[in-house]
Here is the input.
Amino acid sequence: MREVNDAVRQDDALDAAKRWGIPLVVAILVGLAALGGWLWWRADSASKLGAQGEQLALALDQVQAGQFDAGASALGPLAAKPGTGVGADAAIMTAAIAEEQGKGPDASRQFANIAANTDAPKALRDLATIRSVAANFDAIPPQEIIDRLKPLAVPGDPWFGNAGELLGMAYLKLGKRNLAGPLFALIARDEKSSASLRGRARQFAGLLGVDSFDDVAKPIDAGGQQ
Here is the structure.
């Protein structure tokens, strides 16, 4: 009986293997192929990202050495895809090279294009917004500067100090000293801003009659009374 049962089980196993064996093997092979393809794509992406990082570093070395044309050429292929982090970095560097070469309007347009690219990282878009204004400040209407930078000139924003300084200068061009003074005072007290930026802001605030050392910026009259 045991021999009969073993034979029956063996026949059932053979029938099951014939019925499901080929589909099962195919499914396993497909799964392995998919896994292998994903692993290859991941390795290939990491390799490309590493190569892009090396190309970006090489271009930066060339720029720091004053080889602007060579640096711009090296950045060209990367800057053509500003929707990625590396591409946005390359595009910003390319625009910065144009600014360094005295091509303010051209640099401003390049920065503005980066700022308008919603696929680029937000931090880089915000930086590009500020640089687009700084590169061609005198040629941009003050109210346009205010509209572009006011969302960034907010205490706590990573770009508050840089955007706020340009915003304050735009206020001054419009004669709005009552808005510029307190803003410069806030920048002067912003510990996240650089020491040089805080120093400039403190000087502007003082010239506009606002004490930047107090907890709250208050206008100072001619007699020195708050």
